[in-house]
Amino acid sequence: MSSHHIVREKQEPALLIANGEACQPELIGQLLEWSPTVVVLDRAIWRVFELGIKVDVLLGDFDRGLDLEAIMAEQYPLEIVHTPDQNKTDLDKGIEFLIERGYPAVNIIWATGRRADHTLTNMTNIVRYKDQIRITILDDHSRIFPLVGQFEKWYEAGTPISLIPVGTVTGFTSDGLKYNLQDATLQLGYFTSSSNEAAQDGFVRIEAQTGDLLIMECWD
Fold first, then answer.
1. Chain segment 203-212, per-residue pLDDT in tens
2. Domains of the chain, each with CATH number or no CATH
3. DSSP labels for 115-147?
4. The pLDDT of residue 9
5. What does the pLDDT look like over 89-101, one tens digit per residue?
6. Helices 116-125 & 90-100 angle (0-180, nearest 10)
């Protein structure tokens, strides 16, 4: 698999590859279709090379002794960005790198699965960047993105949708779901709108007054 890069200066969402559970090649192929900028985090680089993907940027703290010379010999040209700040995750650094470079959107894969602490942190940390870049985390079973303003999208009846607060969300209101709520307060660990679904073919609308909310489109 390869990404044949056509010069489309930041017109498509960048692709950010973390080091969690791999997804199916079909999903990667779909995301590479429009030749996005590909950023790989730290030790995932060798797993990505095995798939034959052309990488643009390797980013990380490299605290576990990556052989950068061997990596450069494997694939050139390749921009290597050293980000030693231990107070941020590699995923945070990758998102901030794309914000600094002016990218309007990013698709993230391999950010879930494997270690539960990494999965939870990766999913919840994206809300801090919701007003700076459009972020979507994808794996073989879900598409996850933060609520920004009012959300409205057409779904087929029965499409699973979960609404998960990061902390506390107030003034939560939904329309078009099987189980709608009006001016509700959601709190992680206490009350969420998980395992909901589209009530019928048509638009689902979601909004909240305060707080951070993750929208999860799920499938088995």
1. 999 999 999 9
2. 14-141 (3.40.50.10240), 151-218 (2.60.120.320)
3. -HHHHHHHHHHGGGGTTTSEEEEE-SSEEEEE-
4. 61
5. 999 999 999 999 9
6. 30
